[in-house]
User: Fold these one by one.
Assistant:
Number 1:
Amino acid sequence: MEDGEIDEGAMVVDDEDAQSAVQLKIERSAHEMLQESKASVEDTVAKILSIKKEGQPKSLVRELVTQMFLHFITLRQANRSILLEEDRVKAETERAKAPVDFTTLQLHNLMYEKNHYVKAIKACKDFRSKYPDIELVSEEEFFRDAPEDIKGKTLSKDSRHDLMLKRLHFELFQRKELCKLHEKLELQKKKLLDAIANRKKFLSSLPSHLKSLKKASLPVQNQLGVLHTKKLKQHHLAELLPPPLYVIYSEFLAQKEAFCENMDLEIVGSLKDAQAFARQQANKDTGISTNVESSRLEDDAPDEEDDGQRRRKRPKRVPSKENLDQEGLYQVHPLKTILHIYDDEVSDLKSAKLITLKFEYLLKLNAVCVGIEGSHDGSENNILCNLFPDDAGIELPHQAAKLAVGDALTFDEKRTSRPYKWAQHLAGIDFLPEMSPLLTSHGAPSGETAKSDAVISGLSLYRQQNRIQTVVQRIRSRKKAQLALVAQLDLLMKLRWPAVTCESVPWALHNPVCNLHGWSTVGHQSIQALSLPVVETEQVRESIDADMNGRSGTSKEELESAREDGELPSLVPSASVTGDVKLNRLKGSNHEHSRQLTLISKSLVPPISKTKSQSFKKPDDDLDLMLDTDSDQDGPAYIELESENTATQYYEMGEKSWVNYGAKEFCLVLTRNMDTDQRIWKLEAKVNLHILKMLPVDQENYILSHQVCYLAMLFDYFVDESSPSSEKRRGISVVDVGLSKPVSGRLLARSFRGRDRRKMISWKDTECNSGYPY
Amino acid sequence: MVLTIRGRNRHDGPAYDIKFYGHGEDTLLLSCGDDGRIRGWRWKEFTNSDVPIPLQGNQVKPVLDLANPQHKGPWGALSPIPENNSIDVNMKGGSIFSASGDSCAYCWDVETGKIKTVFKGHSDYLHCIVARNTANQVITGSEDGTARIWDCKSGKCIQVIDPAENTKLKGFFSCVSCIALDGSESWLACGRGRSLSIWNLPASECVSRISTRASVQDVLFEDNQILAVGAEPLLSRFAINGAVLSQIQCAPLSAFSVSIHPSGVTAVGGYGGLVDAISEFGSHLCTFRCKCV
C-alpha cells in the first residue's frame, strides 16, 4: 500500500503540468503521506522500543527496522515531492510576477503622463492671452470687410477659436495695412514738409532776389525802353501834378497806350518842391498847419535812390529862389510834363525823335504853357505858333487871367513857353471865346449865320473828341514839314535842284536843262502889299476874278473854306478875318492853303473819322509861286519865282492876319543860256491849280521842291520848243503841257518780256526802238 | 513740270507755268503763259479721255479763264496784255497768285474769277512767285533783282529781299529767276543770276550764299537739301549751309526746270524739250524729248 502511494506520488511529481486540483491533491497526499509515514515511524519505533524493553526476540525487531526503512523512504519521497512542489510554486509565482511588474510600470508611466498633461493643461489654462487687450473690430465688421483669404481658410477646428484667430489675423492684416499707410503718409508728410521748408526758404530769399533783379534790370529797362521802375516813379510824380497838367499827362498817356502813338511822356521837376507845394496847398486849404501831416507826407515819399542824387545835383536850389526869378505872376508849378513826339512813320526800328514839348503850369494865371524843350528861338521860329488858326500864344487865353495881369495885356514874349489855346483845351481848361460867334458874324449874310451855328456844334464835338490825336498829329506833321522845308530851302540857297522822290509826276523824272540862277529872300514889303485893309477886299477879289476868269470857281471854293475856318477850336471871328484870308489867298494865290482848309472842313463833318488828322496841314508850307509877267523878253530867259512862305517871320500886331504870320518871300531866278528870244508865259495859275491834284498825299511836305522842279520843266519846254525829252524814260506818263494837266495812266516801257527774256522791238516810220509801246 | 510746255493748244505763245489746284475728282490743271491768261482745265477730262493726247488740247475746254488787266495809257491807250510768268495757289483761300509782266503780282479769286489783291512795288517784271500759305504771304522774284515778301491780307510789301546786297556781281544780268520754299515754309532759296542764296524767313537773314558757274534757273527744296539747275547740264544738290552735296550730269544743255517725285525720282526739263528722269541714286532712268503738237 505504501508503494502505490509512492508510485502515485512519483507520478504526480513527474507530471508537473498537472492540474492544480491534482497538485493540491498531490500536496495533500504528500503531506498526508508525511503524516502517515511519521505516525507509522513513530509506531514502529514505539514497537521496537517496546520489543527492546520487553526484550522480545530480535527477529521481530528486524522486521520492524525494515518496515521502518520503508517508512523512511516514503518520508523522503514525500519530502522530495514537497520540495519540488515548493520549487514549482516558486517558479510559478516568479512567472506570475513579471506581468504584474510590467503592468505596474505601465501604470506608473501613465500616471506620469497624466500628471504631465494635467500640468500642461493647467499651464495652458493659466496662460494669459493678449487678445482681450486688443481691441478687435466687431464681428459684423469682420464679416463685412475681411478679405476672402482670411475668412476662407480654417485655422482651427474650434469654430470660436477659428473665428477669433481669423479676426486676429484680420486685425493684424488691417493694422499692417494701416502701418504701411501711415508710413507712406509719414513719408509724404516729410516730403511736403521739406517742400514747404524749401519754398519758405525760397520765399524768404525772394524779396532780396527780386530787389536785386529789379536793380539789375534797370540798365536793361533803359536799353529796351521798358521803363517799369521809371513808370512807377512817374505815376507817383503824376499824383503831385497840378490838375491841368495831370489831365494832360493822363490823356496823353491814355492816347499813347490806346493808339500806340509814337510818343513818350515824362514828368520832371523836383519831388521835394512838389511835395512842399502840395503841403502848402493843403495847409492853405484847411487853414491848419499840421506838422503831423507834413511829416506824414514826407514819410510817404518813396525812398528812391536817385532822390539823393537829385539833391546833390542842385543842392542850393530852393523853391523860394525860383519864385524870386519868376516874379509871382509867372510862378510855375515845380513839376512839368515833358512830351516827346516821335516820327510816326516806321522807317526803321527806332524812329527819330521829332520834337520835345514841355508843359508847365502857371499857378497864378491858371494857364498851361507849352514850350519846345531845348529850343530858345523866338516866336517866329516856333512851330507851335498858330498850330490852330489865330493862336500865337501871345494873348492870355482867359479873361480872368487877363484881368489878373492887368496892364500887361500880352504874355511875356521873352518866355519860350506860351499859353496856347490848344494847350488849355488839352489841359481841360475850357473857356469862352472873347466874342460870341453870333456877334462876330454879324456882317455876314443870314445863310452864313446858320452855318456858324453848325460850326459851333461841330466845334463842341471836336472839343470832345480826338483832341490829343489831332494835336499830336498836327505837331508832328508841322515839325516834319518844317524839317522838309528847311532842307529844301537849304538846297535852294545852295542853288541846287531839290530832290524829288515821288516818281509819279513827270517833273520828277525830268532832268532840268536850265540852271538855278539865284534864290534870294525878298524883303517884307510884299507882305505889306499882301495884307491889304479889309475894305479893299471885295474890290480886289472882283478885279482878280475878272482877271483870271478861269479861277472863279476856285475862289468860290476858297470862300467856303474860309468860312469853315471857324470850326477850328480857336474860333476865328469869321467875318473880319475871312476878308483877310480871302485877300491873302486871292492876292497870293494861296491855293494850297485853301485846299488845306477845305480838307479840314470836310474831315470835320464826321469828327471821329480818322482820316481827319492826315489832312491837316500847317500853314508853314504855304507857298505862293508867281511868275513875273513883265520880265525881259530879250537876253537870257529867266523866270522869276516868288515864293511866299507863310512860315514864321513877322507878326503884325494890328491885324489878325495870322495866316501871314512869319511869312517869307523868296525870289527864284532860272536861267538858260540861249540866243533865241523867248516867250515868257504866265504859268502861275497852272502851277498852283494843278500841282496839288497830281501829288500824292505823302509828298505834301515837298511841295516847294515839286513846284520848283515843275517850273523848271515847264521852263525847259518853253525855252526850247522841242518835244518833251522823256523818250529815254522807262515809264511814260504823258503830260499835256498845253492844259498843264496830267493825263491819267502810264504805260510801262520795257524791252524784255517773259521768263525767256525775249526782246521786243517796235518801230515807227523807219526807226526801230527797243521796247514797247512806242 | 517742265517750263516750256508749248501748249494745251489754247495759249497763244509759250506757256510758262502749270500747277495743280485741288484734290481728287475736282483737280484743276492751271496753266499760264505769254498771252497773259491763266486757264484751268479739268484734269479728269484728260485722264479719262480716249482722244489721242496730241488732239486733246482741241477737245477739252478750259473751265477757268482769267485774263490779266491792261494798263491804261494816255488818251485811252492800252498796253499789251502783260504775260504771266509764274503761278502758285492757295487752296484754302481759293486763290491763285500770278507773277505778271507788268511788275505786279495778282491774287485771283477762283470762285469769282476776279482780282482780289494787286501786289505792286517791283520795278520790273516778275519771274516767279511762291505762296507761303502758312503765313498768308506770297514771295515774288523780279527782273529788278529783288525778291519781295507780301502780306496777302493787306497787299503790302513786308520785306524786300535783296540777294545781291553786300555782294558785287560782275557783269551779267542778275534777276531773281527762281525762288523756292521748303516744306516748313521757313527757308527760302532764291536764285539770282549766278548765285543762290538761302534765307531763313523767321529770322529774315541770309544764311548762306552759293556761287554757281552758270545762272540758276530753277531751285527746289527736298527736305533739308536744295536741288538746283541752271544754264549748264548739271543737277546740283546743296545743303542748307551751302555745301555742294552732289552734282549729276543731265541731258538738257540748259535746264529750265526741276521737279521731284516723293519716291525720290527727279525730273529735269530743259532746252530742246528734253526731259531727264534721274533716280534717287543718281542713275538716269530715262530721257525723252517732247514733241511739238
Number 2:
Amino acid sequence: MVGWAIALHGGGGDIPLDLPDEKRIPREIALRHCLDLGVSALKSDKHPLDVTELVVRALENHPYFNAGKGSVLTAQGTVEMEASIMDGKTKSCGAVSGLTTVVNPVSLARLVMEKTPHIYLAFNAAEAFAREHGVETGESSYFITPENIARLKQAKELNRVQLDYTVPTPEIPGDSQIGTVGCVAVDRSGNLAAATSTGGYVNKMAGRIGDSPLIGAGTYANHICAVSATGIGEYIIRATLAKEVAALMEYKGLSLTEAAAYAVEQSGPRGTCGLVAVSANGEVAMPFNTNGMFRACATEDGYTEVAIWPKN
Amino acid sequence: MVGWAIALHGGAGDIPIDLPDERRIPRETALRHCLDLGVSALKSGKHPLDVTELVVRELENHPDFNAGKGSVLTAQGTVEMEASIMDGKTKSCGAVSGLTTVINPVSLARLVMEKTPHIYLAFDAAEAFARAHGAETVDSSHFITPENIARLKQAKEFNRVQLDYTAPTPEIRGDSQIGTVGCVAVDSAGNLASATSTGGYVNKMVGRIGDTPVIGAGTYANHLCAVSATGKGEYIIRATVAREVAALMEYKGLSLTEAAAYAVEQSGPRGTCGVVAVSANGEVAMPFNTTGMFRACATEDGYTEIAIWPKN
C-alpha cells in the first residue's frame, strides 16, 4: 500500500509573468477547487478512473480553460472538442474527437470505452452516439466565450495558425487560454488513470485532430504510471509523449521524475509542452519546457501545490 | 552505409490454412508485385517515404486487401478509410480518418503532413482538404466490392462486431479480407519510413477510428526502426505496438527481431496482431501471433520472402 496522489493541469504555454490578476486569480481558484474535488474523491476511495473523470469534467465546465466551455475556436468559428481517458490496470481506454455539442467530452470518451467494443469515435458519429446515450449536450453558444471570439479574430488578423498561446507583442497582452486540461491519479492500491480534454488550437483547420485523443501521445496509463500532456499537439504526437514517460520508466529504469523531465526535454524545442504524471508508488511529477503551466497536485502525506510558473 | 530493406503486409488474422486457391493466389501475386515495385524504387535511390507511399498506394488499389478499393464496410454499408505515414529521420507524420471518396488515403495522409501545419485531419474536413488539393476522388461505389457486401451481411447475421477475420465454421469459409495494409522501408543511408492504410472492421460503428491512423499504435518510425502494425485495432492502440518496438530497441537494447517479437507477444492474446519492421541497419522482422499474415520482404543482399502462414 502506498499513498494516493493526484495531479492536474489547465494547460502549458507562454503564460506571461505579468498576467493580470483578473486572468490569473480565477484560474488559480479553479485549479484549487478542482484539486480539492479530486482529493476528496481519492480520500473517499473513489477509483482513479472516476477521480480523473470528475476533475476533468470540472475543468471542462470552467470557461477559463481550453476544454469544454471556453474551448478555443476553429478557423470557422466553431468548437471541435476532443478527449481521452485510460485505465492503467486494464489499459482500457476511450477517446472522442470533433464534438460540437457535448458538454463533457471526457465523459463521452469514458462511455465509448465502457459501452462499445471500440476505443475511438469521432465527429458526426460521436455526436450521434452521445444522443443515443442521453449524454448532456448544449448549444454552441454554451461553449463559445467572448474571449475566444476575440482570440480567433486576433489570430486571423495575424494571419497565421495561432498555437496554444500568443507571443506577446506591445499591443497584445499574453494569452492565458492555453490548450488542454488533464488529470492523473493513483490510489492507495496503485491503480492509475489519466484523462485529457481540449478544444485544440486557436484558428485550427476544422477537422484537425491533436494529441489529446491519441492514446500514447496526450494520454497514457499502465501499471507503472499515468500521464496527461499539454502543449503543441503536433510535437506531442511525434514524440508519443505520454507513452515515452512510461517506456523510460519500464525499459530504462528511470524514476518518474527523471522519465517525465527527459520526455519533455526531448519532445522539441523550448515552448513545446508539459505534462503531469503520477506513479504507482504515489509520486508526482509536473515538468514543462514552456514559460508556465497551470497545474496543481497533492499527495497523501499532505503535500499540495497550485502553481503557474516554474518554482524557484 | 548498410543495405536497403523493405517489408510489407496485407493484413494479419485468422487466415485458414485451407484458403482456396482463388483467394490465395491473387493475394500472393499482389504481394510479389508490390514487393517488386518497392524494391525497384529503393534500387533507383527513391527515399523510403516515397517507397512506402507508392507500395501502400498499390495495396490500396488492390481489391483483395482491406484498404482503399476493397475496404470492408461499416455497419451502415459505407466505407470509412484511414491511413498514416511517418518519416523516421524528422518524425514528420501525417494521418487521415473517415475518408469515403479518396482513392489513395495514404497519399492524402502525406499531403496533410506536407501541406498543413497539422498531422491529422478527419471526416468531412479531410474530404474537403482532398478536394481543395486536387487529390484523386471517386464515387464511394468504386471502393465497395461484392465480397465485402457479403461479409457485412454475414456479420450482421451473426449480430456481432466482426473483427478483421471470421472464425471458420462448417458452413462459412474462413475469411481472407484481413484488416490493414502497410509498408516499411530503409535505404542504404539508414533513412526509415512507415505507412499504413485500412478500411477498418467489418460492421464497425460509423465514426470508429482504429489503430491505423494513430501514430505510435499502427505506424511509427524514428532513427532506429520503422514499424507498421495490423490486427485488432483496439489491442494495438492499448499496447501502442509500433512505438513499443522502437522503445524496446532504444531503451532496453533489444534487437529488431527481439523487440518486434516481444511487442507482438505482449499486445494481447493469440490472434491479436502482427507487424512488419525494418531497422536502420537494414534488418527485417515480420512477427505475428495470428494464424497468418499476408506479407513480403526483401533485403539488398538478395533475400526475398512472400508468405502467408508461419514458416516451419
